[in-house]
Records
---
Amino acid sequence: MTARRRAVRPGEPSSPRVERQGADGSPGVSTVWRIRSLEAARQVLRARHATTQAGFTAEAIPQGRLKHHPILVSDGPLHDEQRRKVARFFAPVVVAERYTPQMEECADRLLGQTPPGGRLELDELALHYTVEVTAEVVGLTESSVPRMSRRLVSFFRQPPFDITRRDLGRTRRQWMRAAFNGLLPIGRFFLADVRPAIRERRRERRDDIISHLVDEGYTDVDILVECVTYGTAGMVTTREFVTMAAWHLLRDDALRERYAVAGQEERFAILHEIIRLEPVVGHLYRRAQDPICVTDGDGSWTIEAGDLVDVCVRSANADPQAQAPDEDGLDLCPGRSLPRGVNAAGLSFGDGAHKCPGQPLAILESDVLLTRLLARSPRLVREPEVGWDDLIEGYTLRGLELELPATSSGSR
């Protein structure tokens, strides 16, 4: 059977299922466990209070000036409490009832900017769409969406790093470039987008995350850090998924036709299967704070306190031992059989305490845009280039160009 996965990182191994590396005691280098088994990966991610966040350079984020620990890098009871308080913004029923009309209006407006017979770059349109939708949820509504989009994108122009090293393997010059490339866009993001939103919410609360943070006593700097988190997770990564899903649908006539006539539940199943096959974030990192015993079949291992754990999401999601006998983890099979308790998206939104709360929002907003896009019968003119981003440990898709027919069939 031919593999259907399009985002394949050159040289990335898919075995062994559990691997220990770097245990030679070299200074500044962590012992790293590569977990490619779905069974073992879920055990690590569900080892509540035995691990701390180590991805997204979390361990290099200074905490001294923050009154509140950021939700992305908090752990234990504090993280549980933070998650409980923001859950109401991402509950499926709330997302559907509150944001569907705005998503539909936004999608129609952005698609309507390309006339019949015209061309559009989907990844650029998807960026503005996801920024506008997520900005409404977060409360970043007092500034220009296109300009905010550019500021968020500029934050990702970072030098490479090695997360297995305590200093991230960067030279002094690279750290200086990272600070300049990161802090300058964040400063602009604060001044142009976050601060005006905070000022407006201090005058009058709304039903959004910034208003909630103001009520919780967060400082402006605390709120900025949270907005960067939601900005990267809710806007930038969803942009990549929308583009990837469209790429699969436009290259597979049968899947596209099925999606076009399906009800919402079946469309969601198709999107969940695409993101299982093509997880935007390919690696999740945890630092063990206590020994963790993991098993995979008849094998067992103990991860010691201080070890770094790399949950290899692309491998775990395609784990052949987690599939039905007649199914291939690298094929695209909506509604496939998965082990009991495994999300239809696999580990693409994480698992355990740090599971992404924005899954319902990401799937719904992707569906709203894609149904309207495909109803216009676009023609694929240029396929995207696949790139890789170290910060999110995921793929980027750029340059997917579409042409709308001279006589548009209208929106759905």
---
Amino acid sequence: MSDPRLQRRLGTSAAVFIGLGSMMGAGVFAVFQPAAQVAGAGLLIGLVIAAVVACCNAMSSAQLAAQLPSAGGTYLYGRELIGPWWGFAAGWSFVVGKTASAAAMAVAFAAYAAPAEWSRPVAALAVALVVVTNCLGVTRTATATRVIVVAVLLVLAVVVGSGVIGPDAGSTGVASLGFDASPLAVLQSAGLLFFAFAGYARIATLGEEVRDPAKTIPRAIGIAFVVAVVVYVAVAVVSLLTLGADGLASSTRPLAAVVEVNGWPWAAALVRLGAAAACLGALLAVFAGIGRTAFAMARTGDLPRVLDAVHPRFATPYRAELLVGAVVVVLVLLVDLRSAIGFSSFGVLLYYVVANVAAFRQTRERRRYPRAVSAFGAVGCVVLMFTLPPTSVLVGSVVVLVGFAGRAVALRQAQ
């Protein structure tokens, strides 16, 4: 099939929920613990830094998506506005980083939903079910994500409510707060917390399936981002005031611990169920983005063209979805994924460096925001990239270079 196209089936509401499904995932239930381990109560400052950088990225992504509303997100923007190598860097970083992220989300889901001895088989089964759902159509993905996001937001409302009106609210934690983290520690926490903000990119990768994308995508990105910031700030403040910095850093299930300490032990099981649902929702949305970016890269020849196929009935990039799903299942079953979040953050931050540079290159009539926004976003991403753990930086750099080498070889052979 020549120049296969996806179908525009999504409105603003569906696009918002897909973005929220990506952000309201494993991050909000898990990311505050490692951030507290690094910076203590300084994670609140890190959260502000991550939010500011993410806001710049969201603004750049929104104006780019309005100009180039096709599948692929920043991969497409980089190719069109800067050059093929920049586009490849963005696409490769996104596909590899988010593949690792998807595996981590699947394992996190299984940790909440199954006994320890069954966690990896259950994680693999979750991946298989998500792949099937995505292959059946983006409207099914959006519908499933909408249900999960609503459930997760209700659970998070219970967590925040326990810290406001719970019988033991405010009785612990406050005295142990202290903002004595070093600037480097605060930046490291910002790099980790940025992982939780990256979901709005999924809206841009669906640009070929959104109705009236020039208006819908910027609006959906803005709404999803604002909701996520409000929720994260509320959850972070309540968690710190309830558990204290040390308690938050040492808790493996911090939000369940919050409701227990605040005198609502009945809600702990509900929070665990919400965490599992959040991870599953994020997995759905992440797979939608990975598959469509791989599809876009195959359409231009940066990945094997066999992946450049749209299902004749369901109008989805099913071959790309199936391949990514197979890789994630292998990772889930065989690989130690404890460093996956750091590696994924490196790839996502590099992806947004390209997005900001592409937005900076837009002509005056195409830009909705000052160029300073894109410049600040690019610099912020670079800074956060290189404050991540050294292993994540090293592995991420090697994988990016391997991808560049593979593309160079393929181009040479094609000549």
---
Amino acid sequence: MLVEYPARLYIVAGLLLLIGFGAGTGSQALAFVAAAVAVMLLPGLFTRQSFVSSEEEDEEREPAEPVVLPDDTIGLEVLEDAALVVTTEHDVVAANSAARELLGTVPAEDVRLAIRHPVALEAVDIAISERSEVVRELDSFAAAGRTYRLRIAPIDEHRLLMNFVDYSQVRATERMRADFVANASHELRTPLATVSGFIETLQGAAADDEAARTRFLGLMNEETSRMTRLIDDLLSLSRVELDKSMRPRTRTDLLALVDEFSETVELEADAGGHEFIVDAEANLPPVLADRDQIFQVLRNLVSNAFKYGGSGSPVTLSLRRAENSVLVSVRDEGEGILPEHIPRLTERFYRVDAGRSRRLGGTGLGLAIVKHIVERHRGKLEIRSEPGVGTVVSFTIPLAGPLSGEAGGALPALPEDLRAI
């Protein structure tokens, strides 16, 4: 028989009333029956035990139904980064599209087979055993050179959320910043050490040597000028990076800008014995550009052509209409650049010949500044060179007006006279 607690308590109380009623009225049979039933119900009255049938005992011993974990429990698709829901039994029960793209088909799979990264699996075991949040950084995860930040947090008693955030760009930026600081410190320390050495010499052995003093003062002037140029380029690069996300919206007459630029470089061209040639297509439409920054790009490219183009060789500035942009090219007829150097020319402080670059007054930042300015204008930069023939540096600037837009994709073909390189 099955009598659950607290129903048994109420029945016993009723029987006690019947015993008292039977004794009071002389109904001894009623009092005896009520007392007998009450005695039968007394065992287990205060321990919540009950009499159950064998069938009911078997039912109680059957295992509980497994916890159902639906695939859409927490709406993982709202998360931009890869995310998984994993049970405490290591089963993957949900994955968003970013996780499937990163790891492949993962739901209903053991997480230890889906991930196969020792640091990640160790983090899963810790999160399961300690029921706490775990954060780890995964190097070379999913692909060589990729870094992910893994965060594992309990959702409830049976489930964990695994979130993978791609930190590769963050780590690359940190390394680039560290390299930049180290390189900038080195570039400034070299001329400072030179100037300091000259000062010590002038204060000592060469204090009364007029010829040495004149020579050293000239060298000191060159070194301080070099430091000034370096600081100016560093500040310029910082300003360009600060504005990089803001695309220029000013309509600029490129032909008028080139006319003004040509007047400013005449003295530099004459000093190096160069012929500066402007080959511009007539009636070019306005472009969307920051006038000062495009002026700076032209100055950097033409100055490089003068420095490395060989004494007395011509330098050509070409402007052509190209679909929804203007293609600007600067060509020299110098020694050219070996192919292995070209991909790195826009890196900060990268030089093909460091000693020669310093002698010519280069800071190693000119092409890095050019690259950032062109990217800010949503243009494309290309460097083509052939040893013994020369170098052509080209970039595009989007047109203003209804034809303007992103100048994505490959650069348009170079003018006919520049295709030899």
---
Amino acid sequence: MPRPQRSDQFSPEEICYVHCIQRCVRKAWLAGVDPVSGVDYSFRKEWIRRRMEALASVFAIDVLSYAIMSNHIHQILRNRPDVCAQWSDEEVAIRWLRVFPGRRMEEHLAEPTENDVKTLVRDKNRLAEVRRRLCDVSWFMRALSEPIARMANFQDQCTGRFWEGRFKAQRIIDDAGLLACSMYVDLNPVRAAIAGDPEGCRFTSAYDRAEAQKGEQVDSAAFDLKPIPTEEAGRKIRETPVDDLRNERKAKRRNPTGRRILRDAWLSPLRMKPNVLSGEAEVHTGGVRSSDRGFLNLSWEDYWELLCWTAKQSVQGVKAEVPPRLAKRLAALGIDVSMWRELVWNWQRYFGKSACVGRPESMKQHAEQTGRHHYRGQGSGAACFA
């Protein structure tokens, strides 16, 4: 059965939660230690993480959870058309030009200028299309995947595919599916026996949040959202040697804004604010993410405790009771507490081939709204929900 069209799964015009999976071609370990050649490509995981961080600073897309594995990546994204609507035309233009400058940057060795921004702002039809693309998950994934493939091919002195094809997407439609999917994503390294517990799961959102709680900071990969004055850009190109311009660009690429931030500052906050209406955009003004809206009615302490407890339940058939306080949280979401371990550890069995994730009644309702009879996985997943 062919994968559903993107337009049938999510739309840039409405807020959607999407679980995205992008695999390397032929499932090769192009971001880890190659088991055949023994070559270590693990450093590419940091490439991917920093590219995600950079894109989170310009797109109207919230990165909720992620896990970068040796041959694939997982992300849970939330597009924010309401946030994008709050941005001025100038903000939209510079954000777009930072990612898609419309020219070969290595040849010109120049950044978007004030004149470039004004030119795009004057083209209202083009600007409207750009505003739409900035809150489109597909364009976010495109801007993430293509540069990584180019960098890897340049390093390996080869051509061809790095990713096996278009990313797989699953629409998440309720809080129960969102919590379970987030846990599944954060525990991918534990499931793959790369780490024994969440504290050792580098290149996951849970690891970033845990380290940020300890105060760890990193060089920010966020784009600088200030255009270069046109006259200054022209003067630098005329008077500065090409090698100096190239070295300057390389240095700025490592830390475009010269700031250091908490390791999880670019990720969406975990907990939703109880005193904020759901219709409020909560636009972020710090330049590292699109909004300040959380995505779970769960504190970080509770999430971490549940994550660590779930990670310990790695042996099939061994039954342990969920801590009572956390069991109440799961029950309130409509999850069968006795099946929680089964749902997270065997996610692929229940939702691996489904285009939609959530409680059976939520999936049925969404299917009816989109003109379908049902979603794949709707029946098998029913056992995990109360």
